[in-house]
Amino acid sequence: MEMLAELFTSYWHYLLIAALAAYLISSVNTSIIVTRIVKHEDIRNLGSGNAGFTNVLRCVGKVPAIITFVGDFMKGVVSTLIPYIMTVNMSSETTSQEIRTIILYTGGLFAVLGHMFPVYYKFKGGKGVVTTASVMLMTDWRVLVAELLIFGIFFVVTKTISKCSLLCAGSYPFVAAALRLLDSMGHLSFLSPLNSPTPMFIACVFVITFINGLTIIIMHKDNIRRILDGTEKKITSKK
């Protein structure tokens, strides 16, 4: 509780700035901009209606999809770099470093929320999968490695990105918390971005990543319906 008390009394303004900056930056939707330039249409009126990488790949083409992917990925990078730079002079004590990391996670979460509910596009955006991947990289690269393995193995079997995304979203909080728990037990200290994390810190990581994963699952509600109906499309690219 000491860590949380200090976070909300002494560093609440960092938390606020990180969340606001991340949300406003990530509200810029690459897929909408690229599709308007290439096809003079709104990607939200094409295909599945999702303003994200997969729908651009299906409806617009490979190059626009690559540009979309890079843009969505950089949202998480920039949104975590801002609080990282703001807090660079914080003490090296465990509590201070945990506070700093929680601020980074917060920036990452609001980057995903900005991508999903962009203020510039009537709050109708993408599903946050690619942006979440970049947040994983910036907050704990080991989580990204684990989730990519899960995604890759499941994609070979299903060839369906939505199924893989749902599996990764559901496992995200458990993988993130498990790795931090192993750190606290000294099993992965040589790979840990933060040594000896406290139980409260691990709980905070679980809550933030759980919210992140849950919002991704909610944004995939139409995909879930099609998966249950057996009508969900496998990944293809427009020729």
In brief, what are we looking at here?
The protein has 239 residues and is mainly alpha-helical.
**Could you tell me the radius of gyration in angstroms?**
18 Å
User: In percent, how helical is the residue content?
Assistant: over 70%
Put simply, the count of helices is 11
Number of strands: 0
List low-pLDDT spans. Answer: none
Order of helices and strands: HHHHHHHHHHH
First CA to last CA: what distance? 56 Å
> What characterizes the major β-sheet?
none
- Tell me the fraction of residues in β-strands, as a range: under 5%
Global structural class: mainly alpha
Overall geometry comes to globular
Please tell me the overall pLDDT. 91
Give keywords:
single chain, 239 residues, mainly alpha, globular
Give an overview of the whole structure.
The protein has helices spanning 2-10, 12-26, 30-39, 53-59, 62-86, 94-116, 129-139, 141-158, 161-184, 199-219, 221-229. It is mainly alpha-helical and 239 residues long. Helix 2 packs antiparallel against helix 5 (62-86) and helix 6 (94-116) runs antiparallel to helix 7 (129-139). The longest helix has 25 residues, at 62-86. The radius of gyration is 18 Å and the shape is globular. The mean pLDDT is 91.
Helix and strand layout, with pairings?
Blueprint: H1 2-10, H2 12-26, H3 30-39, H4 53-59, H5 62-86, H6 94-116, H7 129-139, H8 141-158, H9 161-184, H10 199-219, H11 221-229
